[in-house]
What we know:
It is a single chain. By secondary structure, the protein is mostly beta strands. The chain has a domain of about 40 residues. The chain contains no helices and two strands. Strands 1-2 form a two-stranded antiparallel ribbon. The protein is elongated and about 45 Å long.
Amino acid sequence: MQVQNYHNPEIVEPAQMMNVAPPSQEHPRGLYNCVVFSPGAESDWPSQGLNGHMIAEEMD
Length: 60
């Protein structure tokens, strides 16, 4: 996943990886990540709030 810099949208930040893990004794509910993203370049967060954004939850 990559994001644009908040203060300078022309800068694309380095890619980051999302990790998940199935339930285990140490983590009975597993480990997962949630993200809020915009599928389009026209997003103007935070001034638009979450309008036009999507929420995804990555689970194993």
